[in-house]
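TICKET: design request
STATUS: open
ATTACHED STRUCTURE:
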């Protein structure tokens, strides 16, 4: 299979990037040192190419009603200019993808699915738009994934760096942009959609731009300040794991459900304040799963955090043990560059999911001690207002 390339592929090659297949895309894994890239985001600013992500515009008088039906969240309740994390599930409650939706106008949304799922989400949107409640929805769907680039600037210095690239009259709009919100600004002389929804556990921004102008924007940000470091998927994975953010294909998938993944609040079911009226795909199955888990967690699994007591890291699919019996499986794991000890996410039987529980992970035949801990592993310090 021929891998797809982003509009920035040549820029990454010039920087000496090592590439890897991710969701059918030839993406930069790292440039020099993934450890240095990780620390750059925690201490300064890291620049990521996320152009493999999908972008689907949903427009029309029933755009909000359609997304309420197609996704598990209450998308009609979010204000223009805001964003919402949600899931698209199948009728059985399995997770097709996790995604972010930006409301750009009363009847206009931008939905951003994961790279490997973009085509599947778009195809499912087309089906649900045509066959939904009362025969379909009056919406227009536009998959612009292959025409759109996405650049992320992440880290404590991200705002300062970005402010140097926008006109003075737009500086306040950047400073005042809240978490999970988006606005249109000019950066490096180019029109962009600017969002603040990061995946690294740090402050930061996502910049959506047409492919034809992506290289100009990338180089302007990269050369804006010495603290800006190009970062690949390896450091993005270690950063998101420290922040305990789930990855589709690891923590999320068709075989699981939102409640065991700790994403129950994302599902708009009673008695939540965000509960929505009307039907949505997976509603019946998800309501049943929620009720069963409320009644008893016996025999059910829970996504937990694990802290290693030694130096060896757990990896995806490693068995988790208690008294020699398997009680679960690791979904993601590595040595935490920020914290200095191994961390992992794992699905465990609910009986062993309480923080403080001692377990072992089978690291290729040797049982190593780990402790169940509260999530996230890392949480950035918010600077006090002057």
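STATUS: resolved
RESOLUTION: sequence designed for all positions
ATTACHED SEQUENCE:
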């Amino acid at each position: 299979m021929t891998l797809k390339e982003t509009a920035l592929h040549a820029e990454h090659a010039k920087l000496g990037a090592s590439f890897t297949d991710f969701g059918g895309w030839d993406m930069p894994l790292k440039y020099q040192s993934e450890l240095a890239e990780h620390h750059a985001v925690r201490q300064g600013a890291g620049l990521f190419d996320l152009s493999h992500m999908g972008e689907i515009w949903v427009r029309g008088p029933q755009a909000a009603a359609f997304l309420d039906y197609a996704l598990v969240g209450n998308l009609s309740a979010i204000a223009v200019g805001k964003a919402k994390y949600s899931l698209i599930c199948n009728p059985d409650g399995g997770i097709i993808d996790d995604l972010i939706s930006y409301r750009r106008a009363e009847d206009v949304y931008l939905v951003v699915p994961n790279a490997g799922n973009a085509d599947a989400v778009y195809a499912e949107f087309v089906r649900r738009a045509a066959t939904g409640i009362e025969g379909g929805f009056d919406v227009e769907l536009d998959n612009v994934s292959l025409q759109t680039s996405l650049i992320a600037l992440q880290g404590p210095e991200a705002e300062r760096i970005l402010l140097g690239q926008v006109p003075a009259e737009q500086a306040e709009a950047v400073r005042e942009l809240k978490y999970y919100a988006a606005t249109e600004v000019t950066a490096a002389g180019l029109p962009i959609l600017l969002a603040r929804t990061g995946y690294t556990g740090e402050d930061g921004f996502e910049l959506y731009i047409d492919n034809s102008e992506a290289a100009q924007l990338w180089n302007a940000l990269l050369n804006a300040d010495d603290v800006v470091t190009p970062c690949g998927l390896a450091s993005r994975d270690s950063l998101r794991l420290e922040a305990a953010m789930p990855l589709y294909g690891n923590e999320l998938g068709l075989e699981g459900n939102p409640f065991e993944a700790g994403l129950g609040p994302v599902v708009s079911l009673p008695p939540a304040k965000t509960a929505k009226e009307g039907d949505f795909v997976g509603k019946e199955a998800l309501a049943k799963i929620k009720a069963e888990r409320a009644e008893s967690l016996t025999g059910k699994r829970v996504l937990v955090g694990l802290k290693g007591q030694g130096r060896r890291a757990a990896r995806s699919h490693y068995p988790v043990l208690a008294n020699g019996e398997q009680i679960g499986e690791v979904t993601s794991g590595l040595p935490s560059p920020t914290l200095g000890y191994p961390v992992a996410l794992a699905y465990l039987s609910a009986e062993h999911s309480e923080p403080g529980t001692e377990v072992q992970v089978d690291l290729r035949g040797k049982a190593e001690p780990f402790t169940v801990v509260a999530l996230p592993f890392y949480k950035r310090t918010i600077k006090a207002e002057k």
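CLOSING REMARK: The chain has three domains: 9-51+147-242, 56-143+257-295, 296-373. Residues 118-131 form the longest helix (14 residues).
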